[in-house]
Amino acid sequence: MFTRVDDRLHDHPKFLKCSLSARGLWITALSWVGDKLTDGFVPHSCLGRLGARKRDADRLVEAGPWGRGGREGGPGDWVHDFGGWDKAATHAEGRERAGQKRARGVKHRAPRRG
What we know:
Blueprint: H1 13-16, H2 20-36, E1 41-43, H3 54-63, E2 66-71, E3 74-79, H4 82-85, H5 87-109
Antiparallel strand pairs: 1-3, 2-3
Helix pairs in contact: 2-3
């Protein structure tokens, strides 16, 4: 699956307020939430795995690209508007996966000739 990133991100005021390490967390977290299908939720428990510290997440919350929140299992942060702007990519991926499954099913059900 692919995650979309605005090609003007480099010049966005919220992004410019963040340190380079916070920006790195934002990009890496987009990849992680897309892979794990968390709907944009980044648990604080996985920040180390993403190469970040809580202060990077705090900076993203302060600047606006993330919102503080929680989910069953612990505290974390939400990528602002993740469901709104990344939904098209998520739906396209779902359709692609469904098409691949259908194609495999048809191939396996083809009658034998002989």
